[in-house]
Specification:
Length: 153
């Protein structure tokens, strides 16, 4: 993405200030990449979509270089819409002087099925299903040893 000079992401202050979200690198872990808004934006610009594989590439020089060029800007108008909505606006400035802009009135939440799918992907299909099943039955478990063992290294 060498043609991109800079990216400004206008967002609400509450989202920008959440611990770990305003981090342009360097990235040393999957969790850091997942928390970073700069990393998420850069990975979408570099790869064209957002999925779990993007975050596993937290050492990819193309993405990390671009993440350093993403600036988060707190916008009072967008903050006023929060928490009812989570709006965002992005401006991409290219080295040739051209610009691209886009906005969302509300960056939606993941639905329950998508949260579960990401969870299973995070832990691997077999382990993820076992942990998910234990969490679903949490109120019925006599003790937490099995869940703790599954969550361990």
């Amino acid at each position: 993405m060498g043609e991109i000079e800079a990216v400004n992401l206008h967002t609400f202050e509450t989202g920008r200030a959440y611990p770990g979200c305003d981090h342009a690198g360097p990235f040393t872990s999957l969790q850091q990449a997942k928390m970073s808004i700069q990393y998420a934006v850069a990975s979408v610009l570099a790869r064209g979509s957002l999925d779990e594989d993007n975050f596993r590439a937290f050492e990819d020089a193309t993405i990390t270089d671009l993440a350093r060029r993403v600036t988060l800007i707190s916008d009072p108008d967008l903050q006023a819409a929060y928490p009812a909505r989570q709006p965002a606006r992005i401006e991409v400035r290219y080295r040739d002087g051209t610009r691209a802009e886009a906005a969302l009135d509300d960056v939606g939440w993941l639905d329950p099925a998508a949260v579960r799918a990401r969870f299973r992907d995070e832990f691997g299909p077999e382990r993820g299903v076992r942990i998910e099943g234990l969490v679903d039955r949490l109120a019925d478990l006599a003790e937490l040893g099995e869940l703790v063992a599954e969550l361990g290294p």
